Amino acid sequence: MNDFSQGPRVLLHGLLGRALERSAACRLKTVDYHQLTEIFRLRNEDDNAWRCEFWGKVVRSAILTNYYLQDPVLAEMIETTVREILATQTPDGCISSYPEEKQLGGWDVWGRKYVLLGLLRFYDLVRPDEAVKSCCMRLLDNLMAQVGPDKKSILDCGQHEGLASASILGAVVGVYRITGEKRYLDFAKYIVGTGCSKRHNIFEEARAGTIPCELGNGKAYEMTSCFQGLAELYPFDPREEYRTACETYFKAVRKHEIFVTGAGGAKDRVGEFWDNGALRQTEPGYPGGLGETCVSATWLHYCERISELVHLPEAGDETERTLYNAVLGAMAPDGTRWVHLNPTPLIGGGCKLPAPDQLQKCFNKPFGGHDCCRAQGPEALALAPRLALMRDGQSVTLNLFEPMSADVPGLAKIKVTGNYPLEAESVIRITSDAAFEFNLRIPACIRRVTLNGETLSAEPGRYLTINRAWRAEDILKMEFDLSVREVGSPDGKYRAFLRGPLVLSEDSRGDVPHALCHENCAGRSLVDYITAGDLMDEANTIQVWFPK
């Protein structure tokens, strides 16, 4: 979304909305933000670690969360930490947690990216503060004095054969968007021209049909961030090869890498790579982990970009699947903790475990209990309102159907009632003084769509487009089939069960009284994936796929 001032204000009142409130109260308002800025003042991150990412990750999720919740305490915490990060900028424009002799190595550029993303979100969603804009420009100018054509290559500035450092692309486009300064657009084009990987040009390879696990070194999160940046560049440099690369990559990831739960990532022990994961999610004895929460968050970001770029209903389908399973299923019931790795294996014996202090685990140096996925989980959840209802000029698209109230500035007020996905009906009422285009995503579980009692033609997997002048008394109703349906695994050996968008799971506790739903399937007692394993203990195992 480039015109944030015209973006819908959405309040979700169902499963996602209540989870967002818990995330704000029990996680985002409990963070020691001063600890996150202090490392930039001291510049003492001399072990090539990634403490530098946490300020931007946590703060951007806090800002987006509070854009919808409007909590004054969280708002003041955001204001304070932004003032603190601005104060760490040195006269040369640099904001880095790394000592001078180690800058541009390790995760330094990655950390600078996240500082930019946090500041850009403040500028977009809190207020267009000139000091923030100036800070972003000076930070990027400092980097551009060190990196670029005839200087050090961006691909030599970080991890994963350049994917991590090149993923600053989207932040560079963001600085161009708020400033209009051509040098930033030129720098973005330079990054794209590098192909974002030392191995090959990932954008050209994607267009040519190379599957995701064979792009670059296969690192899912960083790679998808690079494609996200390309999609964000497209409105300012609308080359057909950019659009084609982004769309082709989305379809390939959806086909080859996303699990039945909407999570993705495999191969290593914490599930961070593309590895033909859709096929291998049921592989007995698979040596890697499945489903990093950072990948889920980045996949949702990418679904948003694809929705804006090519308006694919499949992006809305993936949004729903990931939010209601991978995201809600990764959060502790009270919102305090998140899993890093989703239950592995999905064919039985896997469990949900809260992410540990990542720096303690990897470097024996504790850092406030932070983990990349504990930082990214709240961001994924905070994306739900903006993914639920999207605006493009005079066109509005509804992707999610849980209870919500929305204000689309200058166009309409929209209210959705019901209790989807737990109950089988959603009613949509639209108040507007103007005629406009309303796009309704039609999910696989649709039974019927009616407008004022008249049945409309609604095909699953497509958008239903209605152009009309809306009246206050209009009733647009969606009726869903929430009976259990069976889906087969890609290898044909297993089956899973879904109730609407909710994946069902067997929990080692047997009966789980607080589960959102209970179903008996093929002689098994199953509950929703959100509740399954929510003790977050090794003894509380779950199973999603069952042998045929």
CATH class of the domain at 392-480: Mainly Beta
Unreliable stretches: none
Strand runs, count: 21
Largest sheet: 8 strands, antiparallel
The averaged pLDDT comes out at: 96
Please tell me what the overall shape is: globular
Structural class: alpha+beta
* Radius of gyration from CA coordinates: 23 Å
The N- and C-terminal alpha carbons lie at a distance of: 44 Å
User: In what range is the share of β-strand residues?
Assistant: 15-25%
Separate helix tally: 18
Helicity, in percent?
25-40%
Q: Provide the CATH topology of the domain at 392-480.
A: Immunoglobulin-like
Keywords:
548 residues; globular; 18% strand; Immunoglobulin-like; alpha+beta
Structural write-up:
There is one protein chain. With 548 residues, the chain is of the alpha+beta class. Among the domains are: 392-480, Immunoglobulin-like; 484-547, no CATH class. Helices cover 39% and strands 18% of the residues. The chain is built from 18 helices and 21 strands. The strands form 4 sheets. Strands 4, 15, 16, 17, 18, 19, 20 and 21 form an 8-stranded antiparallel beta sheet that branches. It has a 7-stranded antiparallel beta sheet with strand order 1-7-8-9-14-11-12. A 4-stranded mixed beta sheet has the order 5-6-10-13. Strand 15 and strand 16 (494-499) form a beta hairpin. The longest helix is centred in the N-terminal third of the chain and has 18 residues, at 108-125. The mean pLDDT is 96.
Summarize the entry for a quick read:
It is built from 18 helices and 21 strands. The protein is α+β, with helices and mostly antiparallel strands. Among the domains are: 392-480, Sandwich (Immunoglobulin-like); 484-547, no CATH class.
